[in-house]
Amino acid sequence: MATPNYYADNADLQFYVDRWIDWASLMELTEYFGRAPDAFKSTADATAFYKDILTLVGEFAATEIAPHAAEVDRQGVDFADGEATLPPRQATIFDALKQLELHGMCLPRELGGMNVPFTVFLINTELLARAEVSVMAHNGFHGGTAMAMLLFSIREGTTTFDAAARRIAGTRFGKEIEEIRQGKAWGAMDITEPDAGSDMAAIRSVGVQAPDGSWTVSGQKIFITSGNGKYHFVIARTELFSPAGADPRTPEGTGRADDPFAGLGGLSMFLVPAFEDGPSGRRRLATLDRIEDKIGHHGSATCALTFEATPAHLIGKRGEGFQYMLTLMNNARLSVGLESIGLMETALRMAKGYAAERRSMGKTIDRHEMIADYLDEMETDLVGLRAMAMHGAVHEELSQKIHILEASGIAKDEPKAATYLARLKHHRAEARKITPLLKYLAAEKAVEAARRNIQIHGGAGYSTEYGAEKLLRDALVFPIYEGTSQIQALMAMKDTLGGVMKDWKGFLTRSALAHLRSRTESDALERRVAELQRLSYDAQRHLITRTATDKARSLKGTALTSWPKQFTKDWNPKRDFAFAMLHAERLTRLLADVAIAELLL
Which of 164, 180, 534, 576 has the maximum number of C-beta atoms within 10 A of its C-beta? Predict the structure, then answer.
């Protein structure tokens, strides 16, 4: 009997790895055009190595994690004497992961890593989440934190490159990265506060600079995943107001008192060690107040912490915290998308397995029309979401790797670099478009799939024996953490309608072409995709028209000469886009359906 393997048994996932992902471009950028230390000499050699890693993780997930998922769930995280301890089974799993040396997988070889594309890391996210989401979430704050440290250091200019040797000569957080690579530490992302969730402008934690230039951070953070870790990326306020003269319509602007973005320009990003380990034991620099008693993700420590003049390291410049946070959140949202897909894969296979064995009314229930329809829809959702996830992952990584290429100085002496630099804007735009759509739809569909899995199991699904209820408990947080579904919908709506307003002529052209193709394309499938595009464009036009009409009505009684300025500059996101906000989730579902249809066409 073959050894269970969550990569080898997934033909759809293998399709993307074998035939769809642009490994040639990812490898060229990751290996500095084949001239990085010990670089692969061909795309075939590189992809063979990447597949070996996926096969290894797939087997580990299926044999060393999944059989113990219920045990991890039962044991939970222990909190005593101000410290949170992983469940014993979870600790055993991470000891094994440390032996595999996967935490440094994506780090450059000169930093002790394997120089593997981050896309492989994200695919591993699906494999691990299929086995147990708590393991996946905690694992992400190892290698993911190390990569964020490196990326932030490159962005702020504190990583030096030997361009001739195509390698990193030194990086600001080298010691911390090595500690994580060895599995001795992990990190966390500290944003949420008691009075500041989605509204980051309400953050009250403060960063204070001493006369000698050093920084400390004070404040409380809550709902921090893996918050019992050592290294924390903390968002804190360093400015009372945003920079003078900043455009109030941008995240950097403070603008009017009713501006929803007020205060974001006053936030900064810090790396804050929560404790120090020495010969005499652990000395806490930040207090671990408690762990949350959650309905799911029992193997993951979700913590509340208090920082009281805790020594901190400013990342980038003061006031740039929101922009650094976006880099973290974009990758975190892609991870949640893949996490949701992993759980959906488990729910689908569990439902299929039960339905194929459970007999009712003379046949197995998978042959009953309604159950067959449920299973078919679950599988269709899964296939579509995976396409969107792979698309988003590749474009996000290409945009980051091209930025690194530019920052390293290597681009100056590399003839092929110009082609990649010219594509940077495109990759960023695709990643920005797909990420909120993926996070929204994957999270919502994961909850739906887990719920349907319970329904297909009937009374057995409501018991704890089969594990169906655990999947629903674990899935319910997906539409909440790393940006709620509603925040994703607002982002998608704002970007989409903003794009229409910036290029009205282009929008009308695309809309007209979709209308035409929906009636004239010879291929029936292409006509159906064009019809879906037409519906999306019609919805966008309706929202824009209604928004403009409401804006015009609001100007009644004002001087006619002020109208041009009111229509081109003076837009209040809360008031003027109220109707569009009301329909943001509906638009987001339509945009996601269009994106999936275009990718699968």
Answer: 180
Buried b / exposed e over 21-38, threshold 16 CB at 10 Å, is bebebbbbbbbbbeebee
The reply to whether 215 falls in a domain is: yes
**Position 332 pLDDT exceeds 90:** yes
CB 414 within 8 Å of CB 453: no
For residue 3, being part of any structural domain is answered with: no
Sign of CA dihedral 499, 502, 505, 506: negative
pLDDT of residue 564: 62
Average pLDDT, stretch 204-216?
96
**What is the C-alpha separation between 405 and 342, in angstroms, rounded?**
32
573, two tokens: 């996101």
User: How far, CA to CA in Å, does 167 sit from each of 180, 421, 502?
Assistant: 20, 19, 41
Residue that is last in its domain, among 303, 319, 335:
319
Tokens of 200: 């980051």
| Per-residue confidence (pLDDT) for residue 251, from 0 to 100 | 41
Q: Which backbone phi and psi does 440 adopt, to 5 degrees?
A: -65, -60
One domain, residues 85 and 97: yes
Decide: 3 and 133 in contact? Cβ < 8 Å.
no
Regarding whether 309 and 191 lie in a shared domain, the answer is: yes
Indicate if 175 and 264 belong to the same structural domain.
no
- Rounded to the nearest integer, the mean pLDDT of the chain is 93
Contact in structure between 187 and 176 (CB atoms under 8 Å)? no
Do both 137 and 200 map to the same domain?
no
Verify that 495 and 575 share a domain, yes or no. yes
Cα–Cα dist 129/6, whole Å: 10
Among the candidates 453, 475, 497, a domain finishes at 475
For 84-101, what is each residue's pLDDT tens digit? 999 999 999 999 999 999
- The DSSP code for 561 is G
To the nearest 5 percent, what fractions of the chain are helix, strand and coil?
Answer: 60, 15, 25
Provide the domain count of the chain: 3
Q: What is the token pair recorded at 194?
A: 């008691």
Residues 6+ apart with CB under 8 A from 461: 453, 454, 455, 468, 469
Judging by beta carbons within 10 Å of its beta carbon (0-12, 13-18, 19+), is residue 254 exposed, middle or buried?
buried
